[in-house]
Amino acid sequence: MGLQHLQWYGLTYYHKFNEQWHISFETYNEHQNNVANLNNPVAVAAIANGGTPFSPQYMPFNAPSGAFCSTTTAISCTASFQTFLTYVNYKVTALDNISYRAEFVNDEQGQRTGIKTRYVETGIGWQHWFSPQIEIRPEVSYYRSLDADAFNGNANLGIAPNKNFAIIGAADMIIHF
Question: Taking a C-beta distance cutoff of 8 angstroms, is the pair 117, 165 a contact?
Answer without folding.
Answer: no
